[in-house]
Design goal:
By secondary structure, the protein is α/β, with parallel strands linked by helices. 24% of the residues lie in helices and 33% in strands. The protein contains eight helices and 23 strands. α2 runs antiparallel to α3. The radius of gyration is 23 Å and the shape is globular. The protein starts with 8 loop residues before the first strand and ends with a strand.
Amino acid sequence: MLMIKKNDIFTAEVVDYTSEGLGVCRYDGQAVFVRGAARGDVLEVRVVKATGRAVWGRIERITEPSEHRIDTDCAVFPACGGCDLRHVGYGEELRFKREKVERALRKIGGVEISAADVIGAEALEGYRNKAVIPVGRLGDSVVTGYYRARSHDIVPHENCKINAPEINICAGVTREFLERYRVDTARHLMVRAVDGGVQAALVVKGGLENGCEWVEMLREKCPNIKSVLVIENPNDDNVPLRGEIECLWGELTLIGRMGAFEFELHPFAFAQVNTQQAVRLYDLAREYAGEYGSAADLFCGAGTLTLWMARGAGRVAGVESVPEAVECARRNAVRSGAGNVEFILGDAGAVKLPRTEVVTVDPPRSGMDLAAVEAVAAAEPERIIYVSCDPATLARDVKLFGERGYKADRLGIVDMFPRTRHTECVVRLKK
């Protein structure tokens, strides 16, 4: 066996993908991971990093392109870490996502299950209704974009194709404002664009001067703007959306529509970023739940899934740890006329749930902690509907529920994030 070294060059066929969407080929029997590779490609690859655990390569030349490869239409792909799969056809992307989810459940969760439903997206571009965009400097210029894969280096990008157009407009206006007024306190820009309007929030450390000028620039270039905020966040971690909010213009919250419901959205409240696919996701979760008289919805955010579950049910309780989200959820229940819903402020693992027939959970990417799993199991539901954006943590938690007598019997995949490695899935667990 060769000693694989950085800058070695070899030719090989891509035979698979990692869970992150990297192509997998082999060099002297060892797996090499290559960004931007398609299954079936024959590539000339340069080794860029080799450790005792793994080897990464870079495409030097495509010797024989795969039948799944398509021309990319983005100048910063694959350097930008926002998209992973712009180089393959959508059928191949859905195949990859199905295999990724089923493989995680099999290898991590110990569950052999096939997806009964795979729901692809109709819109592959312009679907993202919210973005949190890093702000930085390149020389004397202000840049916005997304991080390079496996780093916090910003890849400058002015026209992200998966963002709603208003998001890109607001980013461009903000760059112009920051340069014109020499603002150096901005760290992130959050833009949410829903049918009720557009909200822009600049996350800063050390205040913002000339904010009124930013408001006027946004109002001129983005006619749908309804709200302009500043978020003072003194922390240097990876949680930009927290701190003190100042409303420079408009309202603190936005109103968005999802299916038959209108939802009030606080800037800190979670809501699905793909509105069209969220309707399909929630419809699938409601279908998997079947008939019931009582239900609880953990990690409920602004109450979107909770209100979906409340249709035709008896009592439904939503549980959420973010106070602003709970306030929005309660107003959303009033707005929708749902008198059978209550919302509880608290951590999913600390709230004692009453016995209930169905529990839905939609946790963050990190999944559920053990206390939350125990809280759900203690409520002794007949069915658990687990909504997840991370197959690995989903599979881990499915295994934990399996140890408590629950078996996964139905799996659905809803592609919420086209052109990326991410997808949303729903698993039903029954006693």
